[in-house]
Q: What sequence folds into this?
């Protein structure tokens, strides 16, 4: 039995505890909670843990990217080694392409496309610009067969598409001596081919003596004009080393239908306003980084917030589940026994992980995050694009006559200006939009430039890594 004095002390303590708790709860503010958390000794151990994670991540783990992630900022580019590997990959594609061509009837394929070319309701005309590559220095150049690879892949994809009857595919041979382009001559037995005809050898020699950018503009204008001879809604102009993704047409058709011809804006279905000049289907991966354009910086920040938020949410759920299990084991536990508060810990994790994620995402490289868009055609997005590069471009046919006239005039007036810069000037003068499809539908597989007449060994890792 308890004495009267003991009963009195127990009663006083039980009566005082709720009032003390209520006073503390009433006077506790978020700012005070943060100050208490900082003053606690646990902050020292928390800081040590964070420092350990940073050291482990940036000194031990991320440096491993130099060997595995080709587009990482830490990647060590071994030019010659990757150049040899890229050559090997190119030879494997070349063998597959030639094997595929042996399985089809050349005459039937060509007649099919010629029949489509006479249709008045074509959806799209696809032209592939090609010229002979010099073969005097390295045997590899004579074995590239980029045109063969591209044409076989295009036909294989289109042949499996339900829209084959709506497409006209042709080769645009812009070599000053068309018959000297042996690969194009061989492929002409499979596909319709358009060639530029010179009235005399002197005219051909004069064309060769022009600046490379002038020839590039005139070649491009010729192929656009050749494509315009067929009545189609769109014209897709490709370089002969623009290798298509296996399902490129289905994705392209979906994007044209649901993101350009019609689009949902502010909850309403909107028809194409005709305010865009072209849609680019390829951009070099080495130019497609987070700090390249303003809109890519926004993506960088958004990804950082997402991953830091996910980490904070995981920590919050872990602490909450742990507190629930402890509460079941300790029936006397109260909310005051949980320190620091779960939400405060989650905020701290988010703030600490934000700069970490910001750096990790930048070091990893934007191309790897863009690959997530390829999961479904619904995830492909349109970005403003840049002035660079014309490996694969879709033009609305109604724009092409104006573009052809502009390019021909620019070839005479500004012979030293590259074609892509000249076209960007046209777009800006007309106040038109340009779009870039993300991720790429075509990969630039060429290791040797017919325009600059040189190899790109330092970029060989990109072609090796992203080509199948």
A:
């Amino acid at each position: 039995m308890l004495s009267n004095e003991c009963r009195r002390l127990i009663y006083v303590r039980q009566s005082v505890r709720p009032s003390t708790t209520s006073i503390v709860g009433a006077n506790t503010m978020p700012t005070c909670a943060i100050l208490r958390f900082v003053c606690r000794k646990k902050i020292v151990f928390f800081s040590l843990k964070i420092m350990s994670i940073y050291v482990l991540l940036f000194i031990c783990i991320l440096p491993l990217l130099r060997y595995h992630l080709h587009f990482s900022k830490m990647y060590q580019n071994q030019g010659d080694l990757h150049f040899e590997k890229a050559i090997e990959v190119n030879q494997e594609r070349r063998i597959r392409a030639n094997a595929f061509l042996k399985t089809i009837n050349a005459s039937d394929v060509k007649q099919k496309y010629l029949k489509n070319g006479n249709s008045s309701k074509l959806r799209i005309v696809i032209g592939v610009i090609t010229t002979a590559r010099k073969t005097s220095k390295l045997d590899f150049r004579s074995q590239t067969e980029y045109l063969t690879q591209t044409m076989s892949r295009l036909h294989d994809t289109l042949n499996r598409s339900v829209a084959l009857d709506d497409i006209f595919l042709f080769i645009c041979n812009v070599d000053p001596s068309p018959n000297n382009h042996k690969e194009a001559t061989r492929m002409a037995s499979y596909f319709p081919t358009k060639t530029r005809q010179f009235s005399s050898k002197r005219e051909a020699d004069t064309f060769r003596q022009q600046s490379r950018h002038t020839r590039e503009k005139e070649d491009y204008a010729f192929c656009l004009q050749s494509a315009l001879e067929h009545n189609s809604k769109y014209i897709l102009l490709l370089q002969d080393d623009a290798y298509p993704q296996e399902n490129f047409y289905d994705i392209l058709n979906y994007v044209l239908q649901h993101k350009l011809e019609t689009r949902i804006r502010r909850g309403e279905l909107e028809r194409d306003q005709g305010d865009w000049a072209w849609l680019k289907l390829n951009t070099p991966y080495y130019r497609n980084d987070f700090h390249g354009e303003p809109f890519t910086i926004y993506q960088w920040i958004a990804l950082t917030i997402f991953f830091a938020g996910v980490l904070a949410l995981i920590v919050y759920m872990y602490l909450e589940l742990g507190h629930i299990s402890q509460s079941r084991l300790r029936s006397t536990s109260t909310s005051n026994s949980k320190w620091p508060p779960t939400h405060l810990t989650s905020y701290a994790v988010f703030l600490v992980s934000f700069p970490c994620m910001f750096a990790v995402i930048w070091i990893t490289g934007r191309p790897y995050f863009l690959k997530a868009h390829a999961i479904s055609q619904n995830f492909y997005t349109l970005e403003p694009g840049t002035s660079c590069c014309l490996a694969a471009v879709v033009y609305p046919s109604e724009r092409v006559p104006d573009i052809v006239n502009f390019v021909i005039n620019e070839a005479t007036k500004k012979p030293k200006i590259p074609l892509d810069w000249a076209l960007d000037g046209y777009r800006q003068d007309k106040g038109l939009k340009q779009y870039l499809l993300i991720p790429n539908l075509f990969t630039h597989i060429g290791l040797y430039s017919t325009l600059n007449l040189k190899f790109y060994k330092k970029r060989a890792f990109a072609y090796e890594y992203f080509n199948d």
About this structure: The radius of gyration is 32 Å. The longest strand covers residues 122-130. Confidence is low (pLDDT under 50) at residues 1-28, 332-337, 464-468. DSSP finds 18 helices and 14 strands in the chain.
